[in-house]
Specification:
Keywords: Antiviral defense. It holds the Pfam family RAMPs. This is Type III-B CRISPR module RAMP protein Cmr4. This protein is an alpha+beta fold and about 280 residues long. The chain has one domain. Helices cover about 20% and strands about 30% of the residues. Strands 1, 2, 7, 8, 9, 10, 11, 12, 13, 14, 17, 18 and 19 form a 13-stranded mixed β-sheet that branches. A two-stranded antiparallel ribbon has the order 3-6. A hairpin with a 5-residue loop joins strand 8 and strand 9. The relative contact order is 0.27.
Length: about 280
């Protein structure tokens, strides 16, 4: 396995990785990219969660291995000796959104992406050594949605074909380049999104990722009275289930052998939140 690869992550349960409170009406928002407002998982959050996962599961990894992959703090003892501190060999990048699930009256829900996300994924795919596809045309589309021939999302009216996502309706079109782009993805993901994948305009994708997350209202119960504490009402934002992220991992081939197919990332682990399926990509070529 090569030293550069894209790793894909799918949310199995709602995901909350805490972000900035700036300009958020939610008490506990998720992490988002500053310029795009797309959901993300920061590299430091992902690295910390994976380190805990590998340490907890062991699976043949020694403390020395873990220190080599993730680094070690100065003064922390490893194998009985005081460590001088060092950086880890594995390089993590922020996990970026690839597909975002959006409700659809036809086909239950859709795996939504947009030309900007597709172009960025293609750029990252090539950056790690992926084979270049000849001149993929991933330009912005207007007032239409691109689907595949086997789409479950399409309905017809007056000899025209449409899809509906939340309250937005699109006339559908088909593009060969969209189908070619899908072949960049691991076969597992191609099979998973089959019939549900759709490309919408960039601005509409931004709207969905900003307004179609899950908002949970929570309370805190007093241990003494068993009732709700005063002022303990708060809201928490989650990336919904069925979202796909991807991250580039450098020098991580050996580490990946010690990561189970399911990992937990972010807060509320004891509530079953943040369970992610790890889909290991194909080797770089």
């Amino acid at each position: 396995m090569t030293n550069q690869q894209l790793i894909h992550l799918k949310t199995i349960t709602p995901l909350h990785v805490g972000g900035s409170f700036e300009r958020s009406i939610v008490d506990l928002p998720i992490q988002r990219e500053k310029p795009t407002q797309f959901p993300k998982i920061e590299a430091s959050s992902l690295k910390g969660s994976l380190r805990h996962h590998v340490w907890k599961n062991k699976k043949g990894a020694s403390e020395t291995d873990i220190a080599t992959w993730f680094g070690e703090e100065k003064g922390k003892e490893t194998n009985g000796e005081e460590a001088g501190g060092k950086k880890g060999e594995v390089v993590f990048t922020d996990a970026r959104i690839l597909f975002f699930p959006v409700r659809s009256p036809q086909g239950i829900f859709a795996y939504v992406t947009c030309p900007f996300v597709m172009e960025r994924y293609y750029r990252d795919y090539r950056a790690i050594g992926g084979a270049e596809k000849k001149q993929l045309n991933l330009q912005e589309i207007q007032n239409q949605a691109v689907v595949t021939e086997d789409s479950h999302l399409v309905f017809s009216k007056d000899n025209k074909h449409f899809v509906v996502l939340e309250e937005l309706r699109y006339e559908v079109t088909k593009q060969k380049d969209f189908k070619d782009w899908l072949t960049l993805l691991p076969q597992t993901i191609q099979e998973e999104v089959k019939g549900r994948v759709i490309c919408v305009p960039n601005d509409d994708f931004t709207y969905f990722v900003k307004h179609s997350t899950e908002i949970s209202t929570r309370i805190r119960i007093s241990a003494e009275t068993g009732t709700v504490e005063d002022g303990a009402l708060f809201t928490e934002e989650y990336v919904p289930v069925e979202a796909f992220f991807y991250t580039a991992l450098l020098n991580g081939a050996e580490l990946l052998d010690h990561i189970e197919p399911i990992v937990q990332v972010g807060g509320n682990a004891t509530l079953g939140k943040g369970m992610l399926q790890v889909i290991k990509g194909e080797e770089s070529r």
